[in-house]
Backbone:
């Protein structure tokens, strides 16, 4: 089926402190890769600054959604606004981030527009028929499925962070920022957020952490362990440790990874000053990606690491924190 | 008492030449792990040299160097022992076997598997499951090596139905203290061919020879399993139910009991409810955790109905059924976490953990009164005591942990008094020192009390025959230097 | 309160499912079918709600005869009655089509129960093909509210007070009934069935509802009614051998160089 009049792609951004989330900027790049001659239109709820940033990162233009109904985030209101915009521009597709909020929006937008939806795509490309072919993990990521929406428009999808790289920002790039005053019919907002609560996690949830930054004996001291927390904070992760580090009193048992600690399988595991003895490795070998730093070139940890640096943990750690901050922006 | 040789730089070079330079660790390169096992309270001692061996030939070559130079050698697997058996009390060489971790081959005509000694129990278990097979021994510590399991005749939760490790060892390749390589046993199951040196090796805790390869019996995996969590108000009713299973032709694969106290500890550790603590308005004081296996869901449905009737007739408050993979996993994860949960509430003084334990065996009908006795002794001494155990074979795990006010020395003294008392009591009731954790260095005096001087002498003489220079894992099991 | 809990039977999610290269389909031989974990959380939450506030729980699943075992499992831990929604025409339905089928099923079950549902509980996603979509499509068909990522629910004036998990904490949400709640894992586990409940469930009848019973239209179900199409499956790329970086001796700052290289490798691997 040909959808010649459906060309542009909307990207509904997650915005915090007037800036788009990194994953939303990635979504722009993703949209650019499949938009062809269509425009990529970033959608920001409330923030002009974020809209401008979006343009720097590749959006052709941006909409800033305004209205009393958007003062406090409500997924029904935002989904309805997005649906209205889809209809207005005859969107070929609309993307969000594959966060809980983003996936929720996809479901609401697609069901409202009676169109197809894809959640948690990790890749996308245009097929020969002008449809986007999405790669979607199944069975916990062990199998990848190829999914298309070829009979309706818009193609509604959420894209996982880290799937597509952001474009290089071009400061001062031209692009219109248009304010859209949108009214959502009362009967389309079907629940009310009474209270939004921010919590700080007290417990160390190693098993559910996506990123674990662990230290071993090679860290040398308790103060040095605090530096690991800095890297963990940058990556939204949790600090782990080996048994020797714990026994030296540098960090509590709650952080211990290994045979007599917790078994973990995060997406990203850092092993600083950890030799890689079986007792520890058996606890983290399920990690999807392992980064190791150890001053002993023959340390067994390098046998299981995807990338390793031969060096003193405390020498590498501060440099790595800065380098990673640069990458994730 | 033998004077041991020293590890000189020349000897280190010889060891490197016999293995590989990057697998030999000397001095400051040796990580602290090698000075102890899982129970640091039984003492630590750093070896002079650690060698990561990768083959029987390498173990033999290193052993020969040691023999020629009178240097003590301690074999070591994953270091998860609980009685200090792999602590190199006299320094010398530690031969680390964890790199010998290949599952060599399965022989499905004879239902055995050939493995290197450093294969982790967990890895063999998973590999077997993938092929519809089962290696029945299932000790609690899944990340121990099979060599270690065999050296302690490890038991575990399936022992009540399937027996202990001993029943599954057909053959082994052993490096004797002289460096000579020999093979005990064979693939066949029946044998009456001379003294069973194979069985002497099993449970000998690395003091008679170093096991490098094993031929282990495996069985087809049962098709279906189901677990029951059975809460009782009283421990005595809980234990009294146990023999009823066998009499009624119910053959549980695993049968564990636990008291309410340890379930509370576990809950605090995992941070959420582990088993219901009250049902129908009655508070649970003790639980049985039972697993049955069988060939079909129908077979199991009948078994659990019968088992439930039995339990309810014996004052069970209710019977909870775990028959989905998720719930079976939950039920047993709780049980597997007990040691960690207890350790999470222990305290550390002067770099040592204030925790001590024993795994006495008492006859089934003695379990309930014995456990009561144990708590009384603990109370008298002001020690905190936690216990749980394999109800099916009377093997109890009793732990004592020190609070944050007691000093290391006081704790050790009180713990010694405590265990002296309860070991003696176990003996009086017809029990034995260790069901499965073995003796190491930690439990030697209890062994002597338990088996008597004659048997200790026989064991020492046997040791001398295997190890004339007394260099292999000295100071363990049956003799002090 | 009349409660509907929707469940899906999926392969045991504690098993690593691999693609069979010869059929390009998942290898499911010997994998135990289980009730989708998120649906077990939904049922446990619904059961606790029922115990606190009264009511009945109806269970329903779209599946084949094998799915009856999951219904029976659920009848032993809080479900009061269960139904199998089965029809050849329902095969290959995507979330949009499933939403439609379930909306017709809800209407039919209300007819059979003689009462309207106040709350429809569903797990937020399935562990095989996790899409986070069916609850929203269902709610849209029914014209009722849907709240996602629910971790607690209590009755309140005019409806429910629902706790929704967010990335940084939680929201407290007012929603009117009837509504659909998509359930995220709360901080408690589903209960163990008691032997009595198990035996009762074993004997329970699970009626079948067909396309004819539901009055579904042929072009809205199955492949015909699906708006997304899965056109293929493949295995993810295999893990390469790791890279070990030795800081180069010939630069001014070897550690900085080695670290920068490592981080760029990490960035390329998309792990940051």
Residues:
């Amino acid at each position: 089926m040909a959808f010649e009049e459906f060309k542009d792609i909307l990207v509904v951004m997650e915005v915090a402190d007037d800036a788009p989330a990194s994953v939303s900027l990635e979504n722009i790049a993703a949209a650019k890769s499949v938009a062809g001659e269509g425009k990529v239109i970033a959608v920001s709820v409330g923030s002009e600054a974020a809209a401008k940033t979006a343009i720097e990162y590749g959006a052709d233009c941006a909409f800033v959604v305004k209205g009393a109904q958007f003062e406090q985030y409500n997924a029904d209101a935002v989904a309805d606004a997005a649906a209205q915009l889809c209809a207005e521009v005859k969107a070929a597709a609309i993307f969000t981030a594959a966060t809980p909020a983003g996936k929720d929006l996809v479901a609401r937008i697609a069901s409202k527009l009676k169109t197809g939806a894809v959640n948690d795509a990790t890749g996308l490309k245009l097929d020969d028929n002008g449809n986007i072919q999405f790669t979607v993990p199944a069975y916990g990521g062990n199998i990848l499925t190829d999914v298309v929406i070829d009979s309706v428009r818009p193609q509604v999808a959420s894209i996982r962070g880290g799937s597509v790289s952001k474009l290089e920002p071009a400061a001062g790039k031209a692009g219109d920022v248009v304010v859209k005053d949108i009214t959502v019919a009362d009967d389309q907002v079907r629940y009310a957020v009474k209270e939004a609560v921010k919590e700080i996690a007290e417990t160390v949830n190693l098993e559910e952490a996506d990123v674990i930054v662990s230290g071993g004996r090679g860290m040398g001291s308790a103060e040095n362990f605090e530096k690991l927390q800095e890297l963990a904070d940058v990556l939204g992760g949790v600090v782990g440790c080996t048994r020797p580090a714990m026994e030296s009193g540098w960090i509590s048992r709650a952080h211990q990874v290994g045979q007599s600690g917790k078994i973990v399988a995060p997406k990203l595991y850092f092993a600083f000053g950890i030799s890689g003895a079986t007792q520890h490795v058996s606890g983290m070998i399920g990690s999807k990606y392992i980064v190791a730093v150890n001053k002993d070139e023959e340390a067994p940890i390098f046998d299981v690491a995807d990338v390793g640096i031969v060096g003193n943990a405390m020498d590498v750690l501060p440099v790595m924190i800065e380098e990673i901050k640069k990458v994730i922006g | 008492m033998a004077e041991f040789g020293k590890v000189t730089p020349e000897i280190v070079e010889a060891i490197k030449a016999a293995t590989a330079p990057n697998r030999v660790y000397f001095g400051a390169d040796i990580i602290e792990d090698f000075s102890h096992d899982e129970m640091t309270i039984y003492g630590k001692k750093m070896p002079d040299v650690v060698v990561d061996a990768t083959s029987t030939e390498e173990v033999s070559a290193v052993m020969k160097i040691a023999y020629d130079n009178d240097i003590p050698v301690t074999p070591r697997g994953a270091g998860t022992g609980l009685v200090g058996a792999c602590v190199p009390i006299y320094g010398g060489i530690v031969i680390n076997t964890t790199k010998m971790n290949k599952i060599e081959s399965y022989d499905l005509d004879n239902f055995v598997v050939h493995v290197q000694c450093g294969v982790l129990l967990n890895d063999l278990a998973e590999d077997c499951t993938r092929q519809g097979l089962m290696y029945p021994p299932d000790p609690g510590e899944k990340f121990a090596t099979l060599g270690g399991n065999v050296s302690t005749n490890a038991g575990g939760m399936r022992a009540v139905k399937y027996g202990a490790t001993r029943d599954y060892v057909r053959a082994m390749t052993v490096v004797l203290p002289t460096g000579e390589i020999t093979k005990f046993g064979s693939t066949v199951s029946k044998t009456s061919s001379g003294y069973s040196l194979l069985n002497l090796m099993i449970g000998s805790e690395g003091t008679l020879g170093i096991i490098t390869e094993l031929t282990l019996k495996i069985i087809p995996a049962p098709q279906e399993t189901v677990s029951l969590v059975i809460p009782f108000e009283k421990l005595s009713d809980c234990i009294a139910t146990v023999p009823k299973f066998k009499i009624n032709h119910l053959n549980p694969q695993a049968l564990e009991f636990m008291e309410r106290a340890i379930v509370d500890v576990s809950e605090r550790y995992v941070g959420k409810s582990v088993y219901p603590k009250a049902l129908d308005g009655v508070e649970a004081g003790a639980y049985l955790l039972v697993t049955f296996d069988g060939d079909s869901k129908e077979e199991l449905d009948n078994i659990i109905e019968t088992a439930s009737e039995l339990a309810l007739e014996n004052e069970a408050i209710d019977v909870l059924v775990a028959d989905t993979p998720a719930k079976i996993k939950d039920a047993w994860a709780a049980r597997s976490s007990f040691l960690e949960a207890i350790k999470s509430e222990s305290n550390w003084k002067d770099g040592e953990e204030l925790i001590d334990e024993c795994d006495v065996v008492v006859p089934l009908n003695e379990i309930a009164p014995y456990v009561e006795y144990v708590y009384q002794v603990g109370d008298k001494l002001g020690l905190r005591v936690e216990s749980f155990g394999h109800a099916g074979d009377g093997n109890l795990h009793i732990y004592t942990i020190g609070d944050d006010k007691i000093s290391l020395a006081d704790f050790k003294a009180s713990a010694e008094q405590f265990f002296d008392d309860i070991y003696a009591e176990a003996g009086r009731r017809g029990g034995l020192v260790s069901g499965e954790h073995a003796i190491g260095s930690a439990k030697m005096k209890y062994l002597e009390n338990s088996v008597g001087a004659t048997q200790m002498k026989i064991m020492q003489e046997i040791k001398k025959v295997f190890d004339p220079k007394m260099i292999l894992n000295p100071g363990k099991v049956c003799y002090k230097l | 309160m009349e409660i509907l809990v929707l469940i899906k039977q999926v392969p045991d999610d504690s098993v690593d499912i691999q693609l069979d290269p010869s059929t390009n389909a998942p290898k499911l031989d010997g994998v135990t079918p289980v009730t989708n974990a998120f649906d077990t959380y939904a049922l446990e939450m619904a059961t606790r709600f029922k115990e606190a506030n009264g009511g009945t729980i109806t269970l329903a699943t779209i599946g084949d005869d094998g799915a009856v075992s999951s219904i029976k499992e659920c009848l032993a831990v809080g479900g009061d009655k269960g139904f199998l929604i089965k029809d050849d025409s329902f095969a290959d339905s995507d979330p949009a089509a499933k939403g439609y089928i379930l909306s017709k099923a809800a209407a039919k079950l209300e007819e059979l129960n003689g009462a309207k549902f106040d709350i429809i509980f569903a797990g937020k996603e399935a562990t095989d093909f996790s899409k986070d979509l069916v609850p929203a499509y269902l709610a849209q068909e029914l014209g009722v509210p849907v709240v996602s990522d629910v971790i607690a629910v209590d009755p309140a004036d005019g409806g429910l007070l629902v706790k929704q998990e967010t990335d940084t904490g939680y929201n407290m949400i007012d929603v009117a009934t009837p509504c659909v709640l998509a359930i995220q894992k709360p901080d408690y586990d589903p209960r163990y069935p008691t032997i009595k409940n198990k035996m009762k469930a074993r004997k329970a009848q699970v009626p079948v509802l067909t396309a004819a019973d539901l009055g579904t239209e042929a072009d809205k179900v199955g492949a015909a009614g699906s708006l997304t199409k899965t056109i293929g499956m493949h295995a993810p790329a295999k893990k390469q051998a790791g890279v070990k970086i030795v800081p180069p001796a010939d630069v001014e700052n070897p550690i900085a160089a080695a670290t920068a290289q490592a981080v760029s490798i990490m960035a390329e691997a998309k792990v940051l």
